[in-house]
C-alpha cells in the first residue's frame, strides 16, 4: 500500500486543538480490485482543565485484506479522558465504523451470495490505570465490539454457513512496568 498525506496540527485556543490530515492512498494487486481514493483524519480536542480531555473525530482510511484485497472504512469516534488526584487515569472511547471491502472473488468450494461485503462495527472501551509506584501501575478495563455484516459464505461440501457478524466482550487487567 502507498499513502501520501499532509497535515496540520495545532491549538485554536489554549483549550481547543485540531488535527487534520488529508491525502491519497493506493493498494496495488496483481489480480482483483485495488484501492485508490482520498484519505482523511480530523480530530477536535477540548481540555477545559488539565485533568479533563474530550476528543471527537473521524477518519477515512484503508487496509489490505485477504477478502477483496482491501477494505476501506469511515470511522467516527468520541473519547473522554479524566485524571483524578493527578494519578488515577480513566479513559473511555466509543467508535462506529462503516467498512466496505473490495469485490470478493468466489473462492473454490464456497458459494458467496453477496460479493460486496459491508460491515457496521460498533466499539466501546473503558480502562482505569492506577499507579502503585513510580515504575509499576495496574490497568483494568472492558472492551465491547459488535460487528454487523452482510457477509455469508456457504461451504458447498459440508453445507455449513459462515457468517461474519459477532459480539465480543473482553475484560482485562495488566500489571504495567514503566521505566
| Helix proportion range | under 10%
* Individual helix count: 0
User: Which structural class do the helices and strands define?
Assistant: mainly beta
Number of strands: 12
**Widest sheet, order of strands:** 1-2-3-4-5-6-8-9-12
End-to-end CA span: 35 Å
Largest sheet: 9 strands, antiparallel
Tell me the β content.
over 45%
**Low-confidence sequence ranges:** none
- Overall, the morphology is globular
**Radius of gyration, in angstroms, nearest whole number:** 21 Å
Order of helices and strands: EEEEEEEEEEEE
Topology:
Blueprint: E1 2-11, E2 16-26, E3 36-49, E4 52-64, E5 70-84, E6 88-101, E7 110-111, E8 118-131, E9 136-149, E10 152-155, E11 160-163, E12 166-177
Antiparallel strand pairs: 1-2, 2-3, 3-4, 4-5, 5-6, 6-8, 7-10, 8-9, 9-12, 10-11
Short description:
It is built from no helices and twelve strands. The chain is mostly beta strands and about 180 residues long.
For the structure shown, list the relevant keywords.
179 residues, three-stranded antiparallel beta sheet, single chain, nine-stranded antiparallel beta sheet, mainly beta
